[in-house]
Every structure is written in structure tokens, then in C-alpha cells.
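Worked example 2:
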Amino acid sequence: MDANKNNKGGRKPKLNPSKNRYVFRLTDEENIMFLKLYEASGMRNKAKFITTILFQKELKIVKVDISTMDYHTQLTKFFYQFQSIGNNYNQIVKILYQNFTEKKASFYLFKLEKHTKNLALICKKIIELTKEFEQNHIKKNPEK
């Protein structure tokens, strides 16, 4: 029962509380720069952001470009479609040679080959567009 008398409720005290306070003032331009850095950091607490900068702790800022992510997502979906076409192509070739004469199978494979060439041209165009997109829209990190 003595333990209940000592406990008055509330929060448990911190082991190393922050007791020291510093105040500084910024100009409007400095404040705009500070807020940009703070928002880019993704941190939720300005005080922790400032102490991280002051004591040179590692601060990583990750910028996400939604259009680049969308492009990558669509390109990935397109890649999987190409993969499934390749799987279907292999299955069709097996079925043709199993169920038809060699002459008839060759006739259908010739038609299939024309469509495959068209797909190859589309694939080359996609590669060109991707390279152009990377050059024009994706900023490379100069430090690496």
C-alpha cells in the first residue's frame, strides 16, 4: 500500500530531460529557407530538426517525384505483359508442332513472326523513350 501513496499519477519522468532553452530570430528570407529545409527533411519536430543540424547528425532528405514513380510503375506493368507474351509464344510453338503438320505449323509461325517483329520495334521505342525520360526528367545525384 505504501507504493500507491508515492505514486501521484501522470507521466513517468524522462531519464535525460531537455531543460536548456535557446531562442534565436530569423529574417523572412532565412525563415523561408529554414521552412523549406524542414519540410524537405520530413521530420515532424522542429526542435529535433534543429538539434540534428546543429550537432551534424546525419540527415537524409529523400525527394519523391510522383511522375517518375508513375512512369516506372507503368513500365513495370508493361514489362510483365511482355514476359507473358513470351511465355504464350513458347506455348503456341509447342502446340503448333504437336497438333499440326510441319508445313501448316511453319505457315502459322511465319504469321506469328511478323507480329513478333512489330513487338520488337515497340520494345525498341520503349527503350528509347525511357532513356529520353531519364535524361530529361530524372536528376542524378552528383555525389555518387
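The radius of gyration is 31 Å. Helices lie at 2-6, 28-41, 46-54, 66-99, 102-137.
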